[in-house]
Amino acid sequence: MAVTSSVPHWPTLDDYVHDWALVDVETSGLRPGRDRVLSLAVVTLDGQGRRTGEFSTLLNPGCDPGPVHIHGLTPARLAGAPTFEEVAPRVGELLDGRVLVAHNAQFDYDFLAHEFARARSWAPVGRRLCTLALNRLVGPGTPDFKLGTLAAHYGVEQRHAHDARDDVRVLTGVLRGSLGAAERLGLPLPLLACPPRQDYRPYVPKTPCAYRNPGPLGADGPLVQGMKVAVTGETEVSREELVARSVAAGLNMMTSVSRHTSVVVTNDPGAGSAKLRRAEAEGVRLVDEPTYLRLLADVRPGRAKGTAGQGGAEELTSGTSAPNIPAQRTTTPTAPTTTTAPMTPAADPDRPLVGRRVLVLGGTHEEAAAARTRVAGLGASAAVNLSARVTDVVVLPGGESDRRLGRIASLGLRVHDADWLRAPTPAPAREGTEDRPDTARVLVRGAVMDLPDLPGLPGHGAAWTVAATWGQHAACDVDVVAFALDAHEQVAGDEDFVFYNAPEHPDGTVRFAADGPTEQSVTVDLARLPSEVSRIAVAAAIDGTATFGDVGAVEITVTCGVGEAPTARATLDAATTERTMILAELYRRDDAWRLRAVGQGYDHALATLARDYGVDITD
Fold it and tell me: What is the DSSP letter of 24?
């Protein structure tokens, strides 16, 4: 597709005209709240791309500056710099009323939000735009989406990587080129609302319980390390002290009640709280505070997580179904494991569309799903949105009225009817276009692949991201979540459920990110996951009465590293009336990790799925 690498002017359509605040921060680490901002740069632009303000500074974080070999900011260089609190008014003035722009914007936004919280304020940002997410939608013909790669694509010289002032200058050119490409494609910008939040707190590490749950409390006790304990109602001993003493004794303190809860502590069993109602339904024993304190004085030793005989990773088989939920849940068939590099069309005449990207328009849900399944069978990836990576468009009955057809015609894309999928013949690349094969492996529903060791990252030493994208026309909200599960398909604690309101596991190994209105992702550091975590289940859910039949296909991409090209893709059409869907699983197999594209939907809400994994999100 002919999308040029630079544009002579900024877009003029109203949807692309905003006041911008382009931001880059260099930090002492990767975790907002724990690590600090060492330098920042802000450039403001008006709707025509004219610079209206600029500010940059080093910052004295009052802590170790971290990886000096990356950012070059030594303690000596930072010693005389101001603190963030001293520059917060100026930074807030530049951000106020503008769209914050950054490359991997959630990272920069979260760091700024925590710095403002330390300064007893909040970041005055109403909306943000991630140029990384924008370019994933645009799909330029680049080998990856790193800032330097995109800078070269859009004709911008990068002089000093990891220098905040130079990075924000480069970001200005990348924004200019990205907006121009999005305008030519007719893409709505992935602007993400950032409602003011004052609940950012400094990072306080939480130590997960080191012991496995031995089950329910017996009639006469005793308490055993690893038991899951919930407290409800007023207590004589302060709640904070009671929790601290329990954790010190090796108990797993929970904020919710499930069938796996060992005991609930309450001084008013007739109060009718949500925890008490759930305890009654699940047959969980209730004890009053004096009884609990007596038992707490003699907690018996438990079995440490990861010890033999407790269902460790060695007990998993490739045919094990990830969830263990009754009724609707069935084992997802295991497809043949794929480990080799993507084949070229010449290598497999039965898959002539390898490397191509096909957009299907129109048709009923079932017809479109069948067409996308056929696309994947022919080796191509099925797109859910128009992008510069799309090489072919299939128009099913009803697709003639799709508003994107005019844009598709002006871009000179190949348009076919449904018959083309019976025996497609890919045309050669057109002269002067950016056609290049999509190197991501295409996975069908149920397919399994080994996650490869990448050059310089042996043993899966970098974080893997599973991102979900759906149609930009969707009229309902979709929430992506993740569960860190043991070999029994259960969470060890509430912290193993990661979602929008709890976006990071306490040890930082599983993180949620919202990259746009129709893109959310879960990142997992496989090398640092506790040994007792044998599987990460990534799911999506819809709140309210809408279903995945209303949303349409969901595409997942699997990537290792920020801004890298996807390693694998899958487009999931399985759901129609369902409101919850398991998208993918990362699971241990011997000493390696595998990915399964699941695509299994359920009519019930997220709360039911969470309860079956051991989390009660309604409490």
Answer: E
Whole-prediction pTM? 0.79
The alpha helices in 451-578, defined as continuous H runs, are 548-551
- Residue among 262, 249, 256, 265 nearest 210 (CA): 249
Is the Cβ–Cβ distance between 229 and 276 less than 8 Å? Answer: no
**What is the residue-wise DSSP string for 155-207?**
T----STT-HHHHHHHHHHHHHHHHHHHHHHTPPP--EE--------------
288 vs 17: CA distance, rounded Å: 61
As separate numbers, helices (DSSP H) first and strands (DSSP E) second, the chain gives 14, 26
Q: By mean pLDDT, which of 12-21, 239-248, 325-334, 419-428 is the weakest?
A: 325-334
> In the CATH scheme, what is the homologous superfamily, with its name and number, of domain 14-193?
Ribonuclease H-like superfamily/Ribonuclease H (3.30.420.10)
Q: What is the mean pLDDT of residues 277-299?
A: 93
Q: Where are the beta strands (DSSP E) in 414-518?
A: 414-416, 441-442, 448-450, 464-470, 478-485, 497-498, 510-516
> Which pLDDT score, from 0 to 100, does residue 541 have?
95
Q: Which residues have CB under 8 Å from 90's CB, separation 6+?
A: 55
Give pLDDT, residue 330.
32
Q: Which amino acid is at 91?
A: V
Question: Cα dihedral angle (184, 190, 191, 193), rounded to 10 degrees?
Answer: 160
Decide if 474 contacts 551 (C-beta within 8 A).
yes
Are 166 and 26 in contact by the 8 Å Cβ rule? The answer is: no
- Tell me how far apart the alpha carbons of residues 396 and 412 are, in angstroms, rounded to a whole number: 19
Question: Are 14-193 and 345-422 equal in CATH topology?
Answer: no
Q: pLDDT higher for 90 or 592? A: 90
| 293 alpha carbon, distance to own chain's centre | 41
Q: Is the pLDDT of residue 569 over 80?
A: yes
Of 311, 316, 185, 218, residue with least CA distance to 585: 316
Contacts of 246 (CB under 8 A, 6+ apart): 229, 253, 296
332 vs 420 pLDDT, higher one:
420
Q: So where are the chain's domains?
A: 14-193, 228-296, 324-338+440-612, 345-422
Cα–Cα distance list, 32 to 36, 107, 565 (Å): 7, 8, 25
How far apart (Å, rounded) are the C-alpha atoms in residues 202 and 405? 50
- Nearest-angstrom CA–CA distance, 467 and 20: 26
Instruction: Give the pLDDT confidence of 192-225 residue by residue, as tens digits.
Output: 998 765 555 554 455 678 888 899 999 888 999 9
The C-alpha atoms of residue 424 and residue 353 are separated, in whole angstroms, by: 8
Q: Residue 508 contacts by C-beta under 8 Å, 6 or more apart in sequence?
A: 30, 31, 525, 528
The CATH number of domain 345-422 is 3.30.70.141? no
Amino acid at position 607, single letter: A
d(CA 301, CA 281): 29
Question: Domain 228-296: which topology?
Answer: Rossmann fold (3.40.50)
pLDDT digits (tens, 9 = 90+) for 480-498: 999 999 888 988 777 899 9
324-338+440-612 topology per CATH = Lipoxygenase-1 (2.60.60)
417: number of CA atoms within 13 Å, CB side? 4
Please state, in angstroms and rounded to a whole number, the distance separating the CA atoms of residues 486 and 491.
6
| Mean local confidence (pLDDT), 277-292 | 93
Q: What is the spatial distance between Cα 96 and Cα 108, in angstroms, rounded to a whole number?
A: 16
